[in-house]
Design goal:
It is a single chain. This protein is an alpha+beta fold. It has three domains: about 140 residues, no CATH class; about 270 residues, Alpha/Beta hydrolase fold, catalytic domain (Rossmann fold, 3-Layer(aba) Sandwich), CATH 3.40.50; about 90 residues, no CATH class. Helix content is about 20%, strand content about 20%. It has twelve helices and 26 strands.
Length: about 575
């Protein structure tokens, strides 16, 4: 770890005997608050400066910030541009924070504090705009650990409620580069420069993938294989795959989400079980890929062309997929390709099937992100005036953002969006609502995505909503284009699965899409829509297992389903033999 800054924290009242050993000093020159100073920086820095405050000393504050979590740490954020060594920035009562909005509301008491600087890079886009964004550096767009980000050692302090104390922090550490996993016999890593994306972003941009090769790949050199894309978030390695037995000495980790003890061992066992099935005599011989397309806005591009992210859809379909099929002997035809995924991956699976209908033969979309913007979670983008509030003549009720299977709400839409605004202005938080905005919105005059709504007030921009509708509302695109040829290309290909108590209300949009699909004719859609009773995010169509287990079996669920369909729908003369051994 490279030392880049030195650290000192000062305050009127400090825990002299506390862990992390801090010293007290009064500052009469600076208003009450926190002052972060940049030390020996080699060159001017742009980015988002974050101040993190926690009551829980068991983990670093940077790991405790979460919108749906009632125990979230406190965070404040400031944009910094061109700051040099020795420059400092002050967090005072005027700086927006989450969950509380102002330092003036922070009660006096003992806290663990930490500061971090999330670095931005300058991009000169093909559109002529210049923007500053956090380039992914191999971590999957995680501000908490991005290589090169500067941060301070957590320190215990006593805050006096803003009565006059100044706490000074100097950043002292930077995260090191990340080394990717090595190839194995079955899992290969590929990375190519994308000419399409490089042209858009004004610098070299790359696409990558984890490629899972079938058993017998080397011993059957004349075989050519179907290709299946498992869409989803960034992963440092192929998901739910393990070539060695579970580690019996691994310390058990409890999953609060699934209420399961030793969930890490459950995950290891599920990955090893899939490995044994994959190499067994009866599992279909196909190629499965997981795309690595983290970008300056998010850990995933949503696999479509976008005014703000660039032509990721075309880059994947015209550059990455042909490269993989040529290198690893893919069949290279639409009848022999399929997509599946959950959540973000569910939306992507359905979207690429719609946008490239001839290039895929099935989409298995579990718990998809909103596929109908009349139910953008709990907001109707076309009818509602405000995303945050249901309003009557006298009553004003906040819209929920996250619930459990009993309907208990842990965060509102306003709160989740407030956190994103604190983590990054101009759609730069790396959060869920910001990436939807980055992918779906037109580019604004300043080169950043045009907001779908005001982050502070929730007022919806109707013109931006209409742009979203025409370009990315998958339900509207189905209804608009079904009878003009799209329907014939999608017959039998659409499969949707969602829990009826999805934590993010994603089932609402699926109901609307199902309502249309049931009315289709010439042709009838001929696919499947299924709901999990009281199932949370991300139910994927398996009624025999709880979410905590079924989510680890996407490969086993959808690969055999697709192979069965491919064999039934392959055109005359198609290769149905070389890969079936």
């Amino acid at each position: 770890m490279r030392r880049v800054f030195t650290l000192t924290i000062c305050a009127v009242l400090v825990m002299g005997t506390a862990p992390f050993g801090v010293r007290a000093r009064l500052s009469a020159q600076t208003p009450a608050g926190f002052v972060v100073r940049l030390g020996a920086a080699a060159e001017p820095v742009d980015g988002r400066l974050l101040l993190l405050i926690s009551k829980n000393a068991s983990r670093e504050p940077r790991f405790q910030v979460s919108a749906p979590d009632l125990s979230s740490a406190q965070v404040f954020g400031l944009d910094v541009n061109g700051v040099k060594a020795g420059d400092q920035r002050t967090f005072d009562a005027t700086v927006l924070g989450y969950p509380i909005e102002s330092l003036s509301q922070l009660p006096a008491g003992e806290y663990t504090v930490q500061a971090m600087l999330h670095q931005y890079e300058t991009f000169r886009l093909a559109t002529g705009h210049t923007v500053k964004l956090p380039m992914d550096r191999g971590e999957g767009q995680q501000w908490t650990s991005a290589p090169g980000n500067w941060y301070s050692t957590p320190q215990k302090v006593r805050w006096d409620g803003g009565k006059g104390s100044t706490i000074r922090i100097e950043l002292d550490q930077t995260f090191p580069p990340i080394a990717g996993p090595p190839d194995t016999r079955y899992v290969k890593r590929v990375r190519i420069k994308s000419e399409l994306l490089s042209k858009f972003w004004g610098r070299d941009m790359h696409l990558g993938a984890h490629v899972l090769l079938p058993e017998g790949f080397d011993s059957h050199p004349n075989a050519r294989y179907p290709l299946i894309i498992n869409h989803g978030h960034f992963s440092s390695d192929f998901r739910n795959w393990r070539e060695t037995p579970p580690d019996p000495t691994a310390k058990c980790q409890y999953s609060e989400r699934f209420n399961l003890d030793c969930y890490n061992r459950i995950e290891q066992q599920a990955g090893y079980d899939f490995y044994k099935e994959w190499i067994g005599p009866n599992f279909p011989r196909v190629i499965v890929i997981e795309i690595q397309h983290a970008n300056p806005y998010y850990d995933d591009s949503y696999a479509v062309n976008s005014a703000n992210l660039g032509p990721y859809g075309d880059a994947i379909m015209k550059e990455l997929v042909p490269y993989i099929e040529q290198r690893f002997r893919g069949i290279g035809a639409g009848w022999a390709r399929a997509t599946y995924g959950g959540s973000t991956g569910g939306w992507e699976a359905l979207a690429v099937q719609l946008f490239y209908p001839d290039e895929f033969n099935a989409a298995y979309a579990a718990c998809p992100d909103p596929i109908d913007f009349r139910a953008f979670t709990v907001v109707d983008l076309y009818a509602d005036q405000n995303a945050y509030w249901n309003e009557g003549p006298f009553l004003k009720v906040p819209r929920p953002g996250h619930r459990d299977y009993l309907g208990h709400v842990s965060a509102t839409l306003e709160q989740i969006n407030q956190l994103e605004l604190v983590l990054g202005t101009k759609t730069r938080s790396g959060g869920q609502w910001d990436i939807w905005q980055a992918v779906f919105s037109p580019q604004g005059p300043d080169g950043y995505p045009m907001p779908i709504w005001d982050k502070r007030t929730g007022v919806i921009d109707r013109k931006v909503a209409e742009y979203w509708k025409e370009h990315y509302d998958l339900s509207w695109i189905l209804r608009r284009d079904w009878s003009t040829g799209l329907g014939k290309k999608l017959e039998g290909k659409i499969h949707l699965y969602v829990g009826d108590m999805d934590n993010y209300y994603l089932n609402n949009a699926v109901y609307l899409v199902e309502g249309f699909l049931k009315t289709t004719k010439d042709p009838y859609y001929g696919g499947e829509v299924a709901y999990g009773d009281r199932a949370e995010h991300c139910w994927n169509g398996d009624p025999t297992r709880a979410n905590g287990y079924s989510r680890l079996r996407y490969h086993q669920m959808f690969i055999p389903k697709f192979v069965e369909r491919a064999l039934k729908t392959a055109p005359a003369g198609a290769d149905l033999h070389s890969w079936r051994y």
